[in-house]
């Protein structure tokens, strides 16, 4: 069993922070403005035809769903593309491993950094929705922590994917065949209960669905037993992706 030390994680975070200070404006613009466009386009577009879903205004329903979608996009894409570029082109990871850093520490540090940023950026739709009539609640304070586990899992998923694809162009298969279906079948823009049986079952194993449910419950009223189940699903997903990401990156970088 390899030891896990925090010093390498802190060192990698300092490296990420130095890069972030140079590029924070462009990263923040894309990460915050895009989900806001989704919220306004669907909330006011479909919202003009669908006033409410259940007990929720459609704009509020979409706002809570887009939080999870924002977490998906702001974690899986950095996990895929940044990891591939740093490993295959820039050889940044080779430089890290030349220091007293092991692969599992490298993967953990990178994924935690992605998740930390994503959990902050993903709250933008809620902030915007507050200005359009969403009632504030204390549960909103829990949203960044809930979203963190989804972002951690998908950041690790992206890193694992970057270790198995033969070229950077192969990410098109992952985006079209995996990310897009997860995005569409998660209860973000319409209730999962309205889907056919097979799609409802598929949604239940979709980590994004569990995050969307957690966020909605945090905003509109917590449901402790159900929420523990949703949170447990996200933790299991993140743990499984960590194992796969570490194995995949170790095979690429060392074996």
From TrEMBL:
One of its GO terms (cellular component) is ATP-binding cassette (ABC) transporter complex. Keywords: Antibiotic resistance, Cell membrane, Membrane, Transmembrane, Transmembrane helix, Transport. Pfam families: ABC2_membrane. One of its GO terms (molecular function) is ABC-type transporter activity. One of its GO terms (biological process) is response to antibiotic. It comes from the Bacteria. It is found in: Cell membrane; Membrane. Residues 26-252 form the ABC transmembrane type-2 domain. The chain crosses the membrane at residues 37-56, 62-81, 111-132, 138-161, 173-192, 228-246. It is a multi-pass membrane protein. Signal peptide: none annotated. Belongs to the ABC-2 integral membrane protein family. This is Transport permease protein. The lineage of its organism: Bacteria, Bacillati, Actinomycetota, Actinomycetes, Streptosporangiales.
């Amino acid at each position: 069993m390899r030891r896990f030390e925090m010093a390498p994680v802190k060192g990698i975070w300092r490296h990420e922070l130095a890069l972030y200070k140079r590029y924070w404006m462009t990263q923040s613009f894309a990460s915050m403005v895009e989900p806001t466009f989704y919220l306004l386009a669907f909330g006011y577009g479909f919202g003009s035809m669908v006033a409410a879903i259940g007990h929720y205004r459609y704009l509020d329903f979409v706002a809570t769903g887009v939080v999870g979608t924002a977490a998906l996009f702001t974690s899986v894409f950095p996990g895929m593309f940044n990891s591939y570029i740093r490993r295959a082109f820039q050889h940044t990871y080779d430089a890290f491993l030349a220091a007293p850093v092991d692969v599992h520490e490298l993967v953990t540090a990178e994924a935690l950094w992605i998740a930390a940023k994503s959990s902050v950026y993903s709250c933008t739709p809620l902030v915007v929705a507050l200005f359009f009539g969403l009632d504030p609640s204390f549960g909103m304070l829990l949203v960044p922590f809930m979203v963190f586990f989804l972002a951690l899992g998908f950041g690790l998923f992206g890193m694992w994917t970057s270790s198995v694809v033969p070229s950077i162009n192969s990410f098109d298969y992952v985006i079209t065949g995996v990310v897009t279906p997860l995005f569409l079948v998660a209860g973000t823009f319409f209730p999962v209960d309205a889907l056919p049986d097979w799609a409802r079952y598929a949604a239940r194993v979709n980590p994004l669905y569990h995050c969307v449910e957690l966020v909605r419950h945090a905003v509109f009223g917590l449901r402790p037993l159900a929420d523990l189940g949703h949170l447990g699903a996200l933790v299991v997903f993140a743990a499984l992706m960590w194992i796969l990401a570490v194995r995949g990156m170790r095979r690429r970088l060392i074996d």
